[in-house]
Amino acid sequence: MKRNDMFRRSLPANSVFIALFALVNAIALLPPVYIALSHQHGLVVGVPISVWYLVLVSAAAIVAVTGLWVTECRQGAVD
Amino acid sequence: MIITFGALGVFFVLIVGVLHISKNRQSVATFSNYAVGERSFSSWFVSMAYTNSWWPGSTFTAVFGLTVASGAIGLYFLVYSVLGVLAMYFIARPVWKWGKKFDLRTQADLLDLRYNSRGLKLIGSAISVVALVPWLVLGLIAMGAVIQWASLGKLSDADSILIGIAVLVVRQFWTVQMGMRGLIVTDMVQGIVAYIGSATLCLGLLFFYFGGISNMSQLTEAQLSLPGFGSEEGGLYYFGIVAAGIIGSLCWPMIFTRIYTASSVREVKKGSLQTMAIGFVFCVLLMFVALCAAPLPFAAANPVSSFFAIAQDAGGTWLLAVALVIVFAAGMGFVDGVTQAIGTQVANDIVAVVHPLRDKQELYLAKAAMAVTAIIAAIVAYRIYDSPNLAGVTQLAYQAIIQLAVPIFGGLMWRKGNRDGAIAGLLVGAVIALALTVPYMDQGGAVPWLAGLGSGLVGLVANLVVFVVVSLLRASDRTELERVDQLFQSARELSQSPDQTVTAPSPSQAMPVPLS
User: Fold this and answer.
1) Is the pLDDT of residue B24 over 70?
2) pTM score, two decimals?
3) Nearest CA to B340 among B194, B139, B189, B499?
């Protein structure tokens, strides 16, 4: 497969991941989001929601990049 | 004392043994091999080296202490550390490919290649080296804390610092001799002990010492909330520290160089994933212990040393010895990484720019620079270890280093970005960042009348605007645009001849670089 063809085919998938990374960064960095979520102190499985927020936004980034890695490997785009 | 110092001694001997086993002639035969370890490492070595450079010994003192004292905001380290590694994944292809093809060894080499400017290389390196020295000093001081706890409080502050410095200076003998290869191999051993050891210890503490995570329910509202608008810190304070961390993560030369040590783009990308996973597990467990420790009176009374105090309280001297070895391992890897980065940049990116050097001369100069820097940092650490303004000095360095993000990432993403724009942006951004940091040093550079936004970010915005405007107003000529186009094209090509390396273009080179 030609390299250019491969890039064209991977564009829609990449767009999904770009949107996903933008979403994760927005949840992590937008003041209205982090201020609101960090003021939720109810316990879920013994851990306050504000702590869950900080842990899960980090975990989301790992899940997203793992998905991108798997997608790129399937496309043969990782050398 | 015999148990604690004995444990540290055994670990030190183990590291020296590993260094000797891994030593070979090839590793220091050329400056390139010395600086990037023959570009031969798998993803696990890359990720552990990154982790060792990112989570130093002070994570167990300063970061742990911040969480004990202030609560959930301490987890900002987790957020920016994980999100920061994303950048490594995305820039892996062009950075590694250009590094392999043009024998690049540092981030300043990349700036030189991308912008065809040795001046930019020199400015970038000078900023990096200046910003790194305070971290080296802090690393040496953190080692002093380990020694003091190992003495069970019998040694004075000054004696502890001196012994800690002496141990690390002795360790530097092997770092100076063996370059990046020795560093990466020992990072693996130190990383296993520091981060896997820490995760195991933290799990044990959570299960058997705290009896679960119920202590978190005792945290106050203030400890569980991030600062909002109207708070003392300001509503943009959290945004500022996290954004600066994410943007700045790959601006540190010892972090950036990890990309060049990998054997392929695949290993860099896989290494990024593994780095995120290791950092996540390690940091979450450590922070959970810190949050559970926050309600304990003895931890709250002295948050910075509470990691050691909890270990001692939970398991006596033996468990304290385990905690000390963990922090010692993390601290040693960090100091090694910083020292190696300083040596390489001084030789490769500063002196060699002013006065071209032969390969062997660069090698000797890097070793000398590392030795001299280690000695200077040791003297400074001894003299200022109790300075109340030390944190402010490192913040100043941090606000400056993130200015490198514009020429690095701008150059990797925007083909029209050029030398004039990069230099003008870097200088304007650095000056603004410094001018805004100095008045607010005590707040770590957070500007009160900007709702706590960091001074470095203000400089960064100006830096980016100037970079774009100047690059458009003083656009590159056609020859330069074609050269840059070919660089980007080469980064897109799949690897065909992995051993191919060409000489980096000279600063005055006007013709496009032959890429095929």
Assistant:
1) no
2) 0.86
3) B139
pLDDT tens per residue, range B155-175: 887 788 778 878 877 776 776
Q: Which residue of A has its CA nearest to B272?
A: A65
- In chain B, the residue whose alpha carbon lies closest to the alpha carbon of A30 is B239
End-to-end CA distance of chain B: 62
Among partner residues B82, B228, B242, which is closest to A29 by beta-carbon distance?
B242
Give the Cβ contact number of residue B249 at 10 Å. Answer: 23
Q: Tell me which chain A residues have a C-beta less than 8 angstroms from the C-beta of B226.
A: 34-35, 38, 50
What is the spatial distance between Cα B53 and Cα B188, in angstroms, rounded to a whole number?
A: 11
Contacts of B266 in chain A (CB under 8 A): 78-79
Sketch out chain B's domains with CATH numbers: 2-389 (1.20.1730.10)
Q: Helix, strand or coil for residue B55?
A: coil
Element (H or E) spanning A55, and its range?
helix A49-75
> B377-428 pLDDT, tens per residue?
878 877 776 665 555 556 667 787 899 999 999 998 899 999 999 999 999 9
Of A30, A38, A47, the CB nearest to B225: A38
